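User: Quick one: structure for sequence A, then sequence B.

Assistant: Sequence A:
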Amino acid sequence: MTTPGKYRHLARTSTESGHFAILAIDHRDNLKDSLQKHVAQPLTEADLSAFKLTVIQHLAPHVSAVLVDPAYGIGPGIGQGALGRDVGLLAPLEVTNYAVHPSQRENALIPDWSVAKFKRAGGDGIKLLLFYHPDAPSAPEKRAFVARIIDDCARYDIPFFLEPIAFSLDPARPLPNDELRRVVIESARTFSQMGIDVLKTPFPLDVAHEPDEAVWRAALAELNEACRVPWALLSAGVDYPTFRRQAELACEAGASGVIAGRAIWAEAVALQGEAREAFLAGTARGRMAELAAIVRAAGTSWRDRVPVPDSAFDWYARYDGM
């Protein structure tokens, strides 16, 4: 049975109908590097925060929650009012390091940041990006790592959104589509059985190498069957038209929504001043609104997969650990 705390936090990250329309802007070093390419002067921490808060302010009317990092997003966002009381709040735990191949990346958490601190700050959901392949030597260690965070989120009664990302065991070759499909689906099965609360998953195929939508639908049906918890589709850097179609099919297959980042706001990185503001107020906001409409029309409410918490008169007497 779900605890009242987790159930309420899930409600705060979703729409009234129980769908996720979440804006992802927890990118750090890679976003800073991208922004730096388009300005002459060195980019400051304040500049990166300002970009994130501008995106959030423009898109907040159409999102159910925002996924943003503690340093550049949460602190400034709360202090400057960009993260208002009506928007759910998710935060990452992991350090991002794209300098090495995923097969060589170690599990690393943001220093001086924790589930406990985020809960104290008013957070609604913890996200962990995990590069994972069930056949990799590191797989048992990574499952144990996830198990510890599951326990930590249970201790503080906050939902755990896990984002397992498949990778090739051979750094010299990309992951072929059949293996990608197997790893994404096996990851969904494994981690949803372990006790995560929401699966944040990439599309189970590289659609650039598989144009047949019948194959897409079959892979999504297999993913939905394997996953015991609500799941949401991430954009994974694809362009917006591609992601929109992926989101439609994912929601038809059983997804509870989307957690979308660069597919929504990527073009704003190269723009400055009024041009950036116009893009965010027009194109980006329109994209977010369209995705929200898609998940509302076709998505499966997370409540269909999450048991209702104990609501008996004396429920609080059994609320362990509080």
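Sequence B:
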Amino acid sequence: DPAVVADGDLNDWDLVPNPIVLKGRAHVTHSPDQWDGDRDLSAVIRLCWRPGELAIAAEVTDDSVRQPYAGADIWRGDHVNLWLDFQPGVEPERTMFGEGQVHLVVSPGDVATVKPEIHVYRPEGLNPGPGAVASRRTATGYVVEAVIPVERLGVPAFAMYKDANFEV
């Protein structure tokens, strides 16, 4: 406590431990042959939860921020991709989406005309609602943060001592 607020100011994340630092070629999944070092693209990701909600904050270093897309097309511009599995012990050999799995994207927007947003790709048809995401430009890229009500992701509420897998 206090709760994280999606406002683009990461001061409320100071006490959240274990940031995920994505630096180096090993973390480049799209066009690694065009990646030109950590100043080209790298990030620090923080995740936390409270009863009923999941929160994410990303400090992204990117020398060319571009996000002119909205809705289902936001994957085509700058974004943070989250793959969540709230039931990792169910069908461990599966290769396609199944029960308890969620794929969502958090977009910083372009600050001027395209608003920051969250788009849920799987399960289809779910929307975490307006006002749950905020972003701001920085001298080296952007910051984006979101607070997502878990019931809007179609998964059971999570709690301490329950397994969950995340990939960012």
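The chain is about 0% helix and 35% strand. The longest strand covers residues 41-50.

User: Thanks, that's what I needed.
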